[in-house]
Specification:
This protein has 107 residues and is α/β, with parallel strands linked by helices. Helices cover 36% and strands 27% of the residues. It contains 3 helices and 5 strands; from the N terminus they run E-E-H-E-H-E-H-E.
Length: 107
């Protein structure tokens, strides 16, 4: 897993899972704490995430809210969009361009 960017936009790539969660949490919390306005999290290079990785995203979302910021997801891959819809988190998280629920293939 890698994260590059600054306090306004981060690109996350690789696997966001139990092995990378602690490092990702540290980087995301620093970005939230050090910036102002929206924090854009570009997930277009993310290969996969597990429940722990999703928890890191939700934790950053909550922390951003407490800091008066908004976490915005960009470039969410289709398989991860399905997970967000299945867990109904697409209703809570800000997703750039939204998720076309009707266009997602049924599993």
């Amino acid at each position: 897993m890698y994260i590059r960017g600054d306090h306004a936009e981060l690109v996350v790539g690789g696997r966001l899972d139990v092995r990378s969660a602690a490092d990702a949490r540290t980087v995301l919390h620093s970005a939230v704490d050090d910036g102002v306005g929206d924090l854009v999290l570009d997930l277009s290079e993310l290969d996969s995430w597990d429940a722990t990785g999703l928890g890191v995203i939700m934790g950053a979302h909550r922390r951003a809210g407490r800091c008066g910021r908004r976490l915005v997801l960009r470039g969410v891959p289709p398989q991860m969009q399905r997970l967000l819809v299945a867990t109904r988190l697409h209703r809570i998280l800000a997703i750039e361009g939204g998720i076309g629920v009707e266009s997602l293939p049924r599993v």
